[in-house]
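Let us practice reading a record.
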Amino acid sequence: MQLSQVAEIAVSYSNSIKPSQRPKVECSQDAYLLFRENWDDGNIGFIEEFKIMHLNRQNRVLGITDISKGGVVGTHVNAKVIFAAALKSMCTSIICAHNHPSGNLNPSRQDLHLTSKLFNSGKLLDLQVADHIIMTSEGYTSLSDNCQMDCVI
């Protein structure tokens, strides 16, 4: 093996939707409704999933990325995967969302810790973590609306 042989890493992002046709997020309810349209109804009360929404400077949605799927009580969320996807889309902010199959809309201690970690990591990358939405089949809670985005546990 030659020491000069290395793998090539390609970064690409493809979007065929015109900027004027992309949905705009102006509040947490807009984000929730878009996430809800892109959530598998059969899984929202069954297994926990985590997704991110990519937004441009005008809060227009560039896309939604599935980050992880888990079990009934949790899913493993890797910050590297979140920020790799966000950086790949060249978005300026993201909104995180995950569901609670239990139907409980209150954030857990782990939810608050993860939100704080992502919020602070995003600052280093000039990539705003604008909100973290907890969803159930009956509604949602916005950590941004409840002033819990930069909480440290």
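A brief commentary: The beta strands are 49-55, 61-69, 93-99, 128-136, 139-142.
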